[in-house]
Structure prediction request, 865 residues.
Amino acid sequence: MAVLASDLVGHTRRDKSVSSSRRATRALLCAVALILAAQLGFGAYAERNPKRKDPTYGDKFDKLAARSDGRPLVLMLGSSRTLLGFHAGQVEGELPGVRAFNFGTPASGPITHLVYLRRLLDTGIVPALLLIEVLPPALADGAAGPGEQLFLTGERLSSSEVDLVARFGFREDRLRPAWRESVYAPASALRFQILGRAVPSWIPWNLRGDWSRNTDAHGWATPPRQTVTPEERRERTTNADAEYRATLAVTTPEGRPMRALAELLDLCRVVGIHARVIAMPEAPTFRSLYPDGLSDRIVKSLESVANANGSGFLDARQWLAEEDFYDGHHMFRAGAEAFTRRLTAEVIRPHFDGGGR
Amino acid sequence: MLFAASIPPPESEFAYFRALREWLPEPFFQTQPFLMFFAVVAGVYWLTPRRWKTARVWWLVIASFHFYAAWSAELAFLVGATTVADFLLARLMDRTADPRGRRALLLTSIGMNLGILAYFKYKNFFLGSLNGLLETAGVPGSFDTLNVLIPFGISFYTFEAISYAVDVYRRKIKAERSLPHFLLFILFFPHLVAGPIVRAGDFLKQTRRIKRWNWVRVQVGVQHFLLGVFLKLAIADRMALFCDGLPPGYDGPLHKPGDYSTASVWLAVMAYALRIYADFAGYSHMAIGLAHLLGYRLNKNFDMPYLSPNVAEFWKRWHISLSSWLRDYVYIPLGGNRGGGWATNRNLMLTMALGGLWHGASWSYVLWGVIHGALLIGHRQFRAWSETKPLLKSALESGPGTVLRIAVTFAAVSFAWIFFRPDLAGSWAVLERMFAFVPGKPLELNNRSLWYTVLFVLACQVIVRFGLWQRISAKAPPLALGMGYATCLTFAMLLAPPVGKTFIYFTF
Prediction:
């Protein structure tokens, strides 16, 4: 009897241990399967939806798509200068038959704009008139590659976009791993994109990708304060100096970003979009940061690239005065209104009055 | 940041070690390179036939050496050499019958370990303090401080080596006869850098056992590891944003308290308390999990310390491997509570001050230890006094009374954490701001996310405390458990902030 009992106990223990082991194996396999499914599933979804990977683009795209109503579209691609400078709503006020949208995004240049235009065309958005701002420091192309790559990072791009930007000197050894992580481990690589939309207050403001979310319905933003004290202006101008003087010293208009602009304009020609390249207004203090002759060389090159691709060029560098900017190149509301008024009068209205060209 | 990021030592002269560092640049368990390193180590380990027990142990020793050498080959050789010396001294001690000879060997072993610790970690502290004294006394001249890299984990493996020598001397354990087993006891990479501090008696017997692959053990290991990753990434590094501030300036309330409102500084102190806990408990859980995945068991290092109703209880649940070490090798040898009230209080104070100094070579850590010593003494006196007041005693032991005691203990411990940093002047500035009741900057991240995190951690601890989690996990179907693990990892990845990978205890 005792033997039987001990056998029974041993048997039960063995059974229990086998069942615990089976349970553990299943739990671990479930975990692995769920993690893989969730990560790869979201990674694949994000790969096909650029707005999930790149909320700076995504928020603007959503606002633009929400205003789709059949009117011809005037779209302006550009950097933070455009974001603050092109008052698209004002254009619609002046030309009710036209839909205008500001697609300016901070720290962007011709390579980013090429990526953005391709994305918009993929979704069927074809502007009737495309205004393209070129930020001169974004033309810098040193040994390390274009400066834009510091901002347009691999996780914001799809695989084909990685190939595209790599052609223009973005470092593939940085791009590819970041892109790969965005596909295989999006919970980590795209966490700021996800949290920035789900619980923005949980992450620092500079990681939320809020630039495009905090604009008006036409994609335009203006600083909360519309005046600066002389000290503030001096401080901001000094900051702009520290940020741009060194870059401008090595900027040439012959680098790979300029090739990206040419490709962008060529794409417009192929698709049938009328494009106009714009050198944005700058305050005299900012213009003084350029090494001798560089600003004119850039303008000449832009003009030549634009003409070669059947687009127009507009030199607006001297349109505004010092007090229209808060740091020498980012406009206040008054500056933005003045710039937009003149741009409408000289470029947009003639384009539509002339029957589309 | 409050704690220096791990500074990589100068590159090794040998290409092999330079390549090793490229492969494993940081000794952080939650990073991709480490997980790849671990996968290779565990893969080879488990594929080695079980009967080749010693080969498996050697493999782990080699892996552990490489783990350290990836950071600094020179210091890895130093740690290896002192470990061999400890092994030989203990063997000699075991063979020596003469008590004086044994004592001499013990002192040699302890002297060697403490000497290395003092040279690397405390020399600058003592020289700096001496220079300060000389300056105050108006004596010209000063001693040059030393610019050496502190080997990481030195405080941990030094204590392990000392406790081994003492245990062999006391004949509590026999000296280990196998060199690879002893090397593994000290160098085992999951506990090498920041503990838990293991005892020879617990660990060495495990090295002798044949390890069999066991899914339940793997599950336990994965569970610990995931919990650790979550605590580190989702809680500790997130809380660091509230105390350190945001990069690149890191001018948070604990750095520049003068810029912030009093309320913000109080919140930052609370965040700091949570950060220290989640950081170290997270590391310990990861270490325990990794050890389980290799078939080893490391002792629990934390047992929900912030739910302790008094400071004495707190020290039974906080950094358990250190507090029990201090109890066994400092407090009890000093006389423990055997010499009456005054002697007990003195022993408590000495032990805690030494514990403070163990954490860092700075007067602020000593002060932190002294504050805890004072809290322990205060609690001892209060408990003795309340024993004579049955009404008060029963009120304190009731439900609301216990909640009150937990809250007071948490507040006292959090207050002491203000001094748990290398910069004493900074600690005073924080303290000053806390009681200045002035307006100032708010926290840079929304307070709500701090409160949600605090409530989440509290809720989890209460669930575990009342045994609810144990009941759920014992009965939950595998799919639910798998979902739990997947969710834990996903949230850890999602909530990880952009910076803040250094473990606080790596700097000790």
